[in-house]
Amino acid sequence: MKMLRPNIEVPFRSANPNRRLPAHALRKVALPTQDGYIFKRVEHIILLEADGNYTTFHFTDGAQVVVCKTLRHTEELLGAYPQFVRIHRSYTINLNHLERYIRGKGGYAVMENG
C-alpha cells in the first residue's frame, strides 16, 4: 500500500471519457532504457513512481522498469490514455488497476499489486 495525500475522487471524476484513441492506434509504449527501448502494453502498467529525474513503471507481471525521465515527461507519453491520473507528486496510477481508495487523513490508494 502506498500513502497518497491528495483525494483520488476528484481526478477520478475529472478523467475525460471522451478522450479516446483511434481504433488503429498502437497499445504499446516505448520505454527508453540504457540499452535501447522496451515495448510494453499500456494496459499492463499499474502505476508510475517518481524518484527525482527517474520514473519506475510497475507492471501487472511484477516487473519494474526504471527510465531516466521525469514523471511529467512520462505522463506526456501516456497523455492519450485517460485512465492514467496523477494522484500525488510522486505517483500516477492506472485507474483500471485501482482496487480501492481509503479515505482519511491524507487518504491512500490500494492497487491490485498491493
Q: Which properties best describe this structure?
A:
114 residues; OB fold (Dihydrolipoamide Acetyltransferase, E2P); five-stranded antiparallel sheet; 10 strands; disordered N terminus
Report on this model:
- The protein is mainly beta and 114 residues long.
- It has a single domain, classed as OB fold (Dihydrolipoamide Acetyltransferase, E2P) (Beta Barrel), CATH 2.40.50.40.
- The chain has 2 helices and 10 strands, in the order E-H-E-E-E-E-E-H-E-E-E-E.
- The strands form 3 sheets. Strands 6-5-4-8-7 form a 5-stranded antiparallel sheet, with helices on one face. A 3-stranded antiparallel sheet has the order 1-10-9, with no helix packed on it.
- A hairpin with a 2-residue loop joins strand 7 and strand 8.
